[in-house]
Amino acid sequence: MADGGGVALGRPGGYDDHDTARMFPEQHRSHRDNFARDRARVLHSAALRRLAAKTQVLSPASPADFARNRLTHSLEVAQVGRELATALGLSPDVVDTACLSHDLGHPPFGHNGERALNDWADDIGGFEGNAQSLRIVARLEPKVLDAAGRSYGLNLTRASLDASCKYPWTVERPLPDAGGRLKFGVYPDDEAVFRWLREGAPGRVRCIEAEVMDLSDDIAYSVHDFEDAIVNGYLDPARLSDPREHEALLTAIQSWVGYDVTRDELGDALYRLQRLPQWLASFSASRADLARLKNLTSDLIGRFARAATTATRDAYPGALLTRYRAHVVVPRVIEAEMAVLKGIIGAHVVSIEGRKQLYKEQRRLLKRLATALWEAGSDALDPVFAADLAMAGDDAARRRVIVDQVASLTDQYAIGWHERLVGPVDAASIGVWAPRDRWAADRAVR
User: Where are the domains of the chain?
Assistant: First the structure.
């Protein structure tokens, strides 16, 4: 088999030359599996390392300094994804690569930063984290260039790129997510690579590897963010289990997750979760309680993954499932249980009144920074983005470069750049505190 025109390389069963091709043909001396090479490229990328200092739910520089960040989340998603892929007979490396790549495009301050950049770039097509992830792996991350100096980013195989594409459609025909935000997978000036990776694929349909990536993400953040919220004091398990809080809790959950899952389904799911052997009725941060919470986390991940694996295998008995041969099946009751966990986090952490002003200040910071960079020009940019700015053919392309630069920054770098180009930042107002202030500031935000 040829790797897009290179030397013969191995591949797992269920994948062909079309799947293992690279947009820019390469030759390699080793006989390492194409998909293992893809995974290694993402694992060693600077874009992945930057996720260590980007917000998951709480900022890495917030008082909750044991909370997960985008990097630890991505590693945990990849671990869940590998196990699901193995159980379903898919390439673990393709799914692993997709899981590691799925959040590369997130800007500082998580989804809140995504909203800010979308507002700032509204007149040039907006900002979408998944489209930015494709842009990074296919263009921005330095690895493979042709003789003319054109960047192919990490130059991943078609199967790995396709598996990383959560929303395989363009900005011209976006679809709303559960929160009503319009989602798409590619910016207009990246459509060439999008058309290449989607050759032969059904329109607007995800491959099963992308579905496994998405499910792994759902499992990981619904469970791990729940764990983090308890450990860091944002959730009191005793209140979650208090019958007097039940109706108000369900109302809060439904207001966050929407009405695709009925109130009765959410109530039944909450009932099942509360009767799991490891469910916590209280939490004191003792070693015993921490162990019980960790075991609850493990049990929930196993529960959700096993249910989806079994349902998918039952739907396609004895079949080869790779690429477009099958779809992941998640039982409705499991969807409801994950929705309950997401709704609890959304209602009790993301949407708490004390954080609304914080989110507003984070968005203002990123918008002011983007405007300052636009006005300052190439001298204020990192060298790679300064070169992109010089090559841009019009103002829309130049504004996209500014977006690329801001999106690449970590939370702390965004703050530092703002202080250098715009002015001082009240750290507490955006959820970042010096160590000596952490406990007082944490109590103030709650």
Answer: 17-56+64-207, 209-351, 356-445
